[in-house]
Amino acid sequence: MKNVLARFSKKESLMLQLLYNDLARRSDKGNIDKDVFAKVFYLPGVLGERLFMYFDMNKTQLIDFECFLTAIASYCKETIENKNKVIFEICDSKDDLVLDAKEMNIIVSLLGHEILQNPDIGLDVPVKPIRTKKRSKTVVKISTTLNEDQVSHNQVESFIKGILTFTQFQEFLKTAPNFVKVFDKCFNQEIWCNDLELTMTQAPMLSSLNSQISGELYMKIEEKLVSKYAILRNKVLLLYENTNCKQPGEVIYMEGCYMEIIGDYYISNKFGISITHQNLSFGEIMLWSDSRKERDDWLRFLENASNYRKFKEFYTIGEKIGHGKFSDVYSCTENSTYKKWAVKVITKSKLSSLEKELIQSEISILRVLNHPGVIKIKDIFDSKKHLLIVMELVEGGELFDRLVKKKVLSEYSASKIIKQLLEATSYLHDFCIVHRDIKPENILLTDSSDIPTIKLADFGLSKFAGPNDTQNLACGTLGYVAPEVLIQSGYNCKVDIWSIGVITYLLLRGRLPFDHKEKQILIDLTLKANLSFEEPYWKSFTPFAIDFMIKCIKRDPEERLCSQDALKHQWIKNADVLIPRAIDRKKMQEMNIERGVSSTNFGKVQYREVHIDIDLSTGISYDVRSMPELRGEDCVVEVMS
């Protein structure tokens, strides 16, 4: 620890200690947790996950002070070569000591094409291919709706002729200084490496342009008001004993904090502001000023530094259109454009610590996604009691509801819908995201046509995971969840392909391949039952459909299709040629799919959600919800296996 501290000046060490103390008190564990870390040391997507892993040297999901200092020193107090090595390790999502074009395209898509811009140096940098490893030179295109992404894609192609070793990556960084600046910024040197003496010699200022304010405030200490000199700078509130003091006594990082006005004259002739955090361990910090105007100025700047905004100033809420376990969904109208959106209103008091973590993960994922087949997030409003997520309004209902009405779809329609689902899933997997809960309820439709445009939604159980990472958390929905999730043997993105195979079966057959009203029997069927297509019903379909389902619903994930291979399957790729587009009325009657006719028990036993018990020693906790007539009252039963 002493060796690490020696790399910082006394002022830097003090600022880092104060910053760490402030961030650590936002967690019940007394160290910096992942959620708090991501707000301060931000990188998007899987890069943020790997940055946290870089800090979390003890692999505890918490960062202690020694790890905090060591990680910062290993980047900020090192040579350019060692700094570049840290960047390389964070970008190397496969941990194979090289970067290929696919990894680089992901990085550029996450960070923005601006990181490749350098007006002084040409784009085409010759990089000698490495031939010691067999690796495809094909650049996997990441589908987005932005034209600039294709430009970035082409630039990456010109940079990378094969794969990049660390030495070649250093040469690449010389051509892209903006790339390094992104990583420099996330280490927040402007916070802890300020020239504090310069700060203190500046006259108190009030500027909405740089969101900076300074002046005298008061704190209550042992029933007495004690004067402090306060400076708000770079989202950090610095509290000094007086104007002559060159070192702050307390540091408060404002993002994630909530401000409220303390009742006027709560203390005689003083006007107060209360600063709190959603985690009660943060406590409450109360500051007073001499006038109401000063208090209001401080409140405005503190709210701005914390990124606090009021929903009603930007949107007008409409009617309720849905609800969940701890949230309600409403339509809303954007005040400036009159465009319709949906807003999910989450009540924080109803959330467990794990549910809070999952919601933050969902937000982190939605922020980086931009694909026509994935629901888009528009805005986020975080208040003390509620979290409001504004997203695109999709008015065609769920695929689940479509199945309730039609029972099954034509083979051609099913293929086209599954193709869209695979394109969205492949996009997620390219960004190292596993959805983990793909099911008809989470597939939204934009219209009522036979082949509607779909939107994959509800990323509450989704997870950033590198190409070589395995997950162990048991989550998903029974009937759709893959066997390796149930036995907790470790799983990867191929669990999503299992779910897509199950949905394909459901679209064509009107029931799940493995289904039973008893939870344990359903689990056993998922783990052991053979998938059969021997019944006469399946003779109405092409052999390509059967082959596709067999290859997706493989119990061994190694034998299961990946998303890219699934898109290349004949049933998906050549549907226009191989699949009949019409079914005559007589055949529809034979298949028993006329409206109102069903030979299945669809709905009563297929809607069964798996919720999570983080203590794996007690088994998986299941929240079983039966829906009689598809719209009956929920019946909640908890069963431990």
TrEMBL record:
<keyword id="KW-0677">Repeat</keyword>
<comment type="similarity">
    <text>Belongs to the protein kinase superfamily. Ser/Thr protein kinase family. CDPK subfamily.</text>
</comment>
<dbReference type="InterPro" id="IPR001849">
    <property type="entry name" value="PH_domain"/>
</dbReference>
<keyword id="KW-0808">Transferase</keyword>
<dbReference type="InterPro" id="IPR011993">
    <property type="entry name" value="PH-like_dom_sf"/>
</dbReference>
<dbReference type="InterPro" id="IPR008271">
    <property type="entry name" value="Ser/Thr_kinase_AS"/>
</dbReference>
<keyword id="KW-0479">Metal-binding</keyword>
<protein>
    <recommendedName>
        <fullName>non-specific serine/threonine protein kinase</fullName>
        <ecNumber>2.7.11.1</ecNumber>
    </recommendedName>
</protein>
<keyword id="KW-0547">Nucleotide-binding</keyword>
<dbReference type="GO" id="GO:0046872">
    <property type="term" value="F:metal ion binding"/>
</dbReference>
<feature type="binding site">
    <location>
        <position position="344"/>
    </location>
    <ligand>
        <name>ATP</name>
    </ligand>
</feature>
<dbReference type="InterPro" id="IPR000719">
    <property type="entry name" value="Prot_kinase_dom"/>
</dbReference>
<keyword id="KW-0106">Calcium</keyword>
<dbReference type="Pfam" id="PF00169">
    <property type="entry name" value="PH"/>
</dbReference>
<feature type="domain" description="Protein kinase">
    <location>
        <begin position="315"/>
        <end position="572"/>
    </location>
</feature>
<dbReference type="InterPro" id="IPR011992">
    <property type="entry name" value="EF-hand-dom_pair"/>
</dbReference>
<keyword id="KW-0723">Serine/threonine-protein kinase</keyword>
<comment type="subunit">
    <text>Monomer.</text>
</comment>
<dbReference type="Pfam" id="PF00069">
    <property type="entry name" value="Pkinase"/>
</dbReference>
<keyword id="KW-0067">ATP-binding</keyword>
<feature type="domain" description="PH">
    <location>
        <begin position="210"/>
        <end position="307"/>
    </location>
</feature>
<dbReference type="InterPro" id="IPR011009">
    <property type="entry name" value="Kinase-like_dom_sf"/>
</dbReference>
<dbReference type="InterPro" id="IPR017441">
    <property type="entry name" value="Protein_kinase_ATP_BS"/>
</dbReference>
<dbReference type="GO" id="GO:0005524">
    <property type="term" value="F:ATP binding"/>
</dbReference>
<dbReference type="GO" id="GO:0004674">
    <property type="term" value="F:protein serine/threonine kinase activity"/>
</dbReference>
<keyword id="KW-0418">Kinase</keyword>
